[in-house]
Design goal:
This is Trehalose synthase. The protein is an alpha/beta fold. The protein contains 18 helices and 22 strands. It folds into three domains: 373 residues, TIM Barrel (Alpha-Beta Barrel); 53 residues, Oligo-1,6-glucosidase, Domain 2 (Oligo-1,6-glucosidase, domain 2, Alpha-Beta Complex), CATH 3.90.400.10; 82 residues, Sandwich (Immunoglobulin-like). Helices cover 30% and strands 16% of the residues. α11 runs antiparallel to α12 and α15 runs parallel beside α17. The structure holds alpha-D-glucopyranose (GLC).
Length: 579
């Protein structure tokens, strides 16, 4: 075992043993072994698949996807190579923000099935070796949640202090909105309460007061409830807002954060399930990232790398890799137990807010030139395939997704290159039903009224883009994506190893080298529509051969130790070094 991993295991072992003496002995789980720790690092090399149950598979013909339908599709996900399913919010909801407005944290929305259907889904997923994670949306509730309804009714309600109130309208009532252009304020007057309530997001999503210990206790209760139901971890929604210290006088443009909320949450979940994890949604500047992971990995195990994502789109749009290389290096320093999660598209807009104005306008020009494609003055509300267009560029993007120093996350439907519906409001454009086949409603539902329109026209209509057709075509995107998933499984170096960006002498080529337990990988990508030559200076003594993992051909490195690779337009190669 490499010293780093050994140190990590031993370090964790030691810290666990310390905890043992501080806690009540009868509750202490047995001391973990180093092998357990390797299992506990499962998130470093899994493939996460993001599912919105409502639009994935309808089993009873009412036009709404459900847990039974999702359970029926587990074989498909297994075949694709999915290791973990991330469920978008599925609790009872008025559904004004696609379920991110929760009205009961402990239930299953009756439209999606019964609690028993959920249990059955988890059981069957686990039987297939698939873990299930879920969204933890406790920054806010729906305004229809009984807590808020009681809080707004009476000042002496115990729930009043569960939300954030101001008697007078705060000075910066219209600053710091998350959805600019759509949302007008972050403080809204509530007639019933006679006061203003705080909401970072839409006005129907009042923020919970996380400073209140009772709210923190409730969050732990929610987490415990779902862990007991079998979930493997949580995608923590809106982390910077969840932990901001908000009150009637705070500055929404410069909030302070209370990171120990995350530390406690981390300790709490691991106490109940040793390998459970937190995956944070926090689009922060690299300079601010450290406390989100925690200096010693005591906060979130994983975070989405929004920063690298924006620079990745810049590189895909311009063929220039310098800023992506810089972004990767700037986000490199994370604790050994931590891991980035990389994605191409998610359920929201592609947020380009951290690019410079000129960089952002280049990405808009290439991928979202029409104003109907843009959103919130910072992003693009399209799916990947229509945006990138060229199948070679799409394939390059997937090769990157699986080989960047992170764990890959795929949004449902991206694996077949689904399109978007720009006639739908805001981010609903990328949330249309899954396209399974050429049958009516894309095989999503046998019903007549769909929860959201199925894409049926144009080049991305379901008769052209669907799972069934792509399954039988070995060159399809679906088959390529599952090949990448298999390839990634053969390359544990990516999730577990040390890595560096190599100097390739080309502005258009990104090369990353990974080392782990004496194994070395070098993965190169050409972002240019023109063929490129690049220099790979990665060989070590004894490793003078590069084996191309895509075709098994090997090339010997000459006396200089530098290998010159020829890459076709948008070409890529995964090399393993060998002796
Ligand atoms: C997160 C989700 C987004 C949702 C918001 C409010 O940013 O990704 O979809 O609208 O939180 O919960």
């Amino acid at each position: 075992m490499k010293p780093l991993i050994l140190m990590l295991c031993l370090g964790l072992l030691a810290s666990c043993q310390q905890n043992t003496s501080e806690t009540e002995s009868e509750k202490v789980p047995p001391a973990p072994t180093p092998t357990d720790f390797m299992n506990e690092l499962w998130y470093k090399n899994t493939l996460i698949y993001s599912v919105d149950v409502e639009v994935f598979q309808d089993s009873d013909g009412n036009g709404i996807g459900d847990f039974t339908g999702l359970t029926q599709r587990l074989d498909y996900l297994k075949q694709l190579g999915v290791g973990t399913i991330w469920l978008a919010p599925f609790q009872p909801t008025p559904n004004r923000d696609d379920g991110y407005d929760i009205a009961d944290f402990y239930g299953v929305d009756p439209n999606l099935g019964t609690p028993q259907d959920f249990d059955k889904f988890i059981r069957q997923a686990n039987q297939q070796g698939i873990r299930v994670m879920m969204d933890l949306v406790t920054n806010h509730t729906s305004d229809q949640h009984p807590w808020f309804r009681q809080a707004r009714q009476r000042t002496d309600s115990p729930y009043r202090s569960w939300y954030v109130w101001a008697k007078e309208r705060p000075e910066k009532w219209n600053k710091g909105m998350v959805f600019p252009g759509v949302q007008q304020a972050i403080w809204t007057f509530d007639k019933q309460a006679g006061e203003y309530y705080y909401h970072r997001f839409y006005d129907f999503q009042p923020d919970l007061n996380m400073q209140n210990p009772a709210v923190q206790r409730e969050m732990r209760k929610i987490v415990r409830y779902w862990l007991d139901k079998g979930v493997a971890g949580f995608r923590v929604d809106a982390v910077p807002f969840l932990i901001e210290i908000a009150d009637a006088n705070f500055d929404p443009e410069k909030p302070s954060h209370q990171f120990d909320i995350i530390t406690q949450l981390h300790q709490y979940i691991q106490w109940h399930k040793r390998d459970a994890i937190l995956l944070g949604e926090a689009n922060v500047d690299p300079k601010e990232q450290e406390p989100y992971f925690g200096k010693d990995g005591q906060n979130m195990q994983m975070m989405f790398n929004f920063f690298a994502n924006q620079h990745l789109f810049y590189a895909l749009a311009t063929a220039e890799t310098a800023s992506l290389k810089k972004a990767l290096n700037e986000t490199k320093a994370i604790p050994p137990t931590a891991q980035w999660a990389q994605f191409l598209r998610n359920h929201d807009e592609i947020d380009l807010g951290r690019l410079s104005d000129s960089e952002r306008s280049k990405v808009y020009a290439k991928f979202g030139p029409d104003t109907t494609m843009q959103l919130y003055d910072r992003g693009i509300r399209r799916r990947l395939a229509p945006m990138l267009g060229d199948p070679r560029l799409i394939e390059l993007a997937y090769s990157l997704l699986f080989s960047l120093p992170s764990m890959p996350v795929i949004r449902y439907g991206e694996e077949i290159g689904m399109g978007d519906d720009l006639t739908l409001q805001e981010r609903l454009s990328v949330r249309t039903p899954m396209q399974w086949s050429t049958s009516t409603n894309a095989g999503f539902s046998t019903g007549t009224k769909m929860v959201r329109p199925v894409i049926s026209q144009g080049p991305y209509g379901y008769s052209k883009v669907n799972v069934a057709t792509q399954r039988s075509d070995s060159a399809s995107l679906l088959n390529r994506v599952s090949r990448f998933a298999r390839l990634r499984k053969q390359c544990p170096e990516i999730g577990l190893g040390a890595w560096k960006v190599l100097d390739t002498k080309s502005d258009h080529v990104l090369a990353i080298q990974y080392n782990w337990q004496g194994r070395t990988l070098v993965i190169v990508h050409n972002f240019s529509p023109e063929p490129q030559q690049c220099a790979i200076n990665a060989t070590t003594k004894g490793q003078r051969k590069l084996v191309n993992l895509l075709d098994n051909q090997s090339s010997a490195v000459g006396a200089t130790g530098i290998y010159t690779a020829q890459l076709p337009a948008y070409g890529y190669t995964w090399y393993r070094l060998s002796s």
